[in-house]
Amino acid sequence: MDxxxxxxxxxxxEVIVREELEQKLRSGRxxxxxxxxxxxxxxxxxGHAIGLRKLRQFQExxxxxxxxVGDWTARIGDPSGRDASRTMLSAEEVQRNxxxxxxxxxxxxxxxxxxxxxxxxxxxxxxxxxxxxLTSRFTMAQMMAHETFRKRxxxxxxxxxxxxxxxxxxxxDSVAIEADIEFGGMDQKFNILAGRDLQSSLGLPPQDxxxxxxxxxxxxxxxxxxxxxxxxxxxxxxxxxxKAMSISDAMLDEYLTLVSEIADAELEEIRHxxxxxxxxxxxxxxxxxxxxxxxxxxxxxxxxxxxxxxxVFQQRELPSEIPVYECKDDQPIAIIKLLxxxxxxxxxxxxxxxxxxxxxxxxxxxxxxxSAVIEPRDGTIVRVGRRRFVExxxxxx
Length: 397
Fold this sequence. Notes:
Elements: H1 3-7, E1 14-16, H2 18-27, E2 32-37, H3 46-60, E3 64-69, H4 73-76, H5 91-105, E4 114-118, H6 120-123, H7 128-135, H8 140-144, H9 147-154, H10 161-177, E5 181-185, H11 189-201, E6 208-212, H12 237-245, H13 252-259, H14 264-276, H15 281-297, H16 299-314, E7 324-327, E8 333-334, H17 335-341, H18 348-356, E9 360-362, E10 365-366, E11 373-374, E12 381-384, E13 388-394
Parallel strand pairs: 2-3, 2-5, 3-4, 5-6, 7-13
Antiparallel strand pairs: 1-6, 8-11, 9-10, 9-12, 12-13
């Protein structure tokens, strides 16, 4: 398989139009690759890394990446998959989130070979005439082909004109930078095709569309911070390893295919072994977790994370390093207050949920009463789930 053929590997969901793109790549012409940055979601996870690794492959062939910071569209919020309108972000929030995003973007993609553009470069100069011209390029029928828009309209839920503008604004980005290819997940197909249509409407060469699959979260739902099911690029090695080990056996093949760097031939053999029952899925999962940590933290960190996992979860020992939570005095403390104060729960409602679901233990004894109080003795270990621990220390006043 040559270098260009590897572009269209197992991590690609759809390319429109593949034959045209392949011809462009073999022509030797340097292409302009567009990726939109949605700064309403600043934290990147391994699902994002699928597309970012693809961009890096194009970079290595000498093509130019243009990263577009959606400082205008982020204020609207991408309506794709949304049952309700988003709260608009302030310019300050967009700026802060964009900086976080770009720091994490650099973990995978070569920043020195990436050009960054802000939508405000062109939309800041837009007049009402420009807005009318842009909206005249799209019909309501086109917009109602958007699954989210159609569903909300049919169910009688609010659908604002501002949200209907989102695909048109993202499409204009492709015109502004003269994109040859736009990248995105499958949930972005409508918006990216809108860019292709707009370019054609304006007499420009239409961009090709390069789509990657959406990786499910560790619990099988959509990978999202709000579900707490992401494996973030900035997770420390032991957390990254533990999260990878938490996926179900049913999701193993999808994760191996999309996020591992295991060679195709070896991956096929692993599939056969799993189907025949000649290999324990846990061992394959450990191979996957090791590979994920190695990609983002290096081989040494991957070995150490694996050893820590074996020690804590297979040999039932405590982690080698446990965060300390200091209590001010020796007065009993409510377990809910302790969980929130120690950062093991984000809120009292989450703390209650963790307890009722049986996810909280004190010195390895399950806490079953949400009104429980504990004595803050030095060395007491509080655990939430399988991976989060704190050790209580008393601080004398």
